[in-house]
Amino acid sequence: MLITRAQTPQLVILSGKGGTGKTSISAAFIHLSESLNQEKRLTVVDADVDAANLNLILQTDSLATYEFWGSSTAEISSEKCEGCGDCVRVCRYDAIFRDPQNNTVYWVDPVACDGCAACVYTCPQNAIAMIQQLEGNWLQSKGKFGMIFHAELFPGRENSGKLVSLIKQKAQEWAQHVESPLMIIDGPPGIGCPVIAACVGADMALIVAEPGMAGLHDLKRIFATLKHFKIPTVLCINKADLYPQGSLEIQQFARQENIKLIGEIPFDPHIQSAIRLGTQVTREFPQAPASQALCKIWQATLDHMLNLGLTGLKING
Amino acid sequence: MKIIISAKSNQLEGSPDERFGRAAWLIKVDSATGEWQAFPNPGANQSGGAGVAAAQFVIDQKADAVISGDFGPHASRALKAAHIEMYILTGAADSLKKAMELFSQSLLPVFQP
Amino acid sequence: MQIAIASGKGGTGKTTIATSLAKSLVGSHKVHYLDCDVEAPNGHLFLHPDIQTQKDAIIRIPQIDTNLCTLCGRCVEVCQFHALAQTADEIVLFPELCHGCGSCTWNCPEDAITEIANPIGIIESGITPDGINFCHGVLKISEPMPTPIIRQMRKYKSLSRDSVVILDAPPGASCSVVETLRAVDYAILVTEPSPFGKHDLLQIFGILKDLKIPAGVIINRTDGHESDIEQLILEKQIPILMQIPFDKSIAAGIASGRTLVELQPEYRERFIAMFDFIESFLAVEQVC
Description:
The complex is a heterotrimer.
Chain A: E1 10-14, H1 22-33, E2 42-46, E3 61-76, H2 86-90, E4 96-98, E5 106-108, H3 118-122, E6 128-142, E7 146-153, H4 160-178, E8 183-186, H5 193-199, E9 204-209, H6 213-228, E10 233-237, H7 244-257, E11 260-264, H8 270-276, H9 281-284, H10 289-307
Chain B: E1 2-7, E2 25-30, E3 36-40, H1 50-60, E4 65-68, H2 73-81, E5 85-88, H3 96-104
Parallel strand pairs in B: 1-4, 4-5
Antiparallel strand pairs in B: 1-2, 2-3
Chain C: E1 2-6, H1 14-25, E2 31-35, H2 43-47, E3 50-64, H3 74-78, E4 84-86, E5 91-93, H4 103-107, E6 113-127, E7 133-139, H5 147-156, E8 164-168, H6 175-181, E9 186-191, H7 195-211, E10 215-222, H8 227-235, E11 240-245, H9 248-255, H10 260-263, H11 267-287
Parallel strand pairs in C: 1-8, 1-9, 2-7, 2-8, 9-10, 10-11
Antiparallel strand pairs in C: 3-6, 4-5, 6-7
Helix pairs in contact in C: 1-11, 5-6
């Protein structure tokens, strides 16, 4: 009643632990959406901007590349600097060094600089300025399924969270413009800044868990994060048969926390083979055990989104 | 009364922006005289804290009310602390002019955090 | 000597390598293991440390004395992160946005700002049954910034030159990885033979080039499709330190919480040989 705008529902795929198969599952979902998504208006975001792999296995054409200007870092003018060292004292990031050759000159390590500008305000010679940094690129590419927004953060840069927010915002604008029925966000590992950026605004999360001590530990941490942000969550297990005891432990955790377990994917070398061929396992090997499981999980994900009242893709069985 | 609306362009005929912190423009309108002025949103290009930056601008402009599609937790906390009323855009508000009309008829809902 | 284990792509086996290397060297060296993957720390699940000390990892956030504050707005002006806002009658703080840089404190003309500790995680340390000095950081749920914890961990331990420090890095290639790699002597990169592994390895190569850190690569889970990634590593003139074939029993064993050297003890010799290679490589480099 209040807001009549058509918001595209957002599904975010996360894991806590790295390498559990988020990207392969995202790619499979994108492929499987093609049959339901008559107008090919799916919107996709690869939110793992420091290890952006999703586009490597989707056959897309790049439409445009844009520069990503991130935060600013301090730069000391060697002409103005008189070498008092006040800047070193205020810097909490150990980012300012005395030049080994010249005792009266200081320089800033741009990688260590946090951009707080404490040194700028401290310098009695006004010798320090904040310079905005080019920290990566973001791209818009078109595939059979619709549009993907992805990015390449330059190695070692900060602000992966800001870049994730930026491409999500661009994707959201696009999704609204074409009235996209669903947005799929392939999330980064961990629980920190880029994960939070990937989660904010998501309508549902799918956690991809891996059986084992480490997998269970990290599952608990990502689930706690999603709970904190109040995002409805479902769960699937990948490589479920590699360590059956671990799968049992995940099932037990899911029961305890009342998380819906929507399926299990067996360990299947076809997933690696599909990656090597640059394609999705469900497209290349539709009969493979992993593909069969993925079809069911995709269906269950859509069912769950519909149950939440999210206007996703039409499900025609 | 001074009202600020988040906007996609710097024109009164243009569309409002659903986003507050990262809207491109903030348009200040005096509801008594109809006078208006467009400002680039200082939050739009911030790495973090966009909502606070935009809220600080609204506070500094001594606005009485602000209209947008939504307000994040930081922005709403800052605006609330400054006793600035927050209103939500509805689907009918397809232009800034229309949004102002709805506002003056008390047809825009108050923001519920 | 400080050796970091990094990968770019997640789940390639960083912790497997780091824990097994630590276990292989502990007989002959004083070994420290630092788990810098503070978002998803797993090293303790394999090394079983007896945690002896625990302390908060903190950032220092401002606290404003309203009796002294004149609402001049200087703190709001200098804050680059918009963690402070000013209204007609107060300064509002947003602790989640604060980076703890201290700029507002130093710039307040009334000395109205003091700093209080805002815990963003914990740092725990102890010793493992086989004698490895263990330390890890754990980021609190919903806190965005892992780097201050890594920075504090590295300062917390006084690490002597004669001990071997193994730093288990987080995945990815952004600031937290850089914080882990800063000032290490050598990096061991763990990858897997796939286009994903290859793409993400290139990202890490970029960081190491910037930081001027020498590195070697371990190719994990090889399955006869390595030629592509071997060629890339060769082109970059980086040594391949080890190849570990994919084996379902290793995968299951690691999932159950055991290290590679416990599952296949013959790897111990290979890790020691690899370490000797790195040591002699660094010795030669120092002379040159």
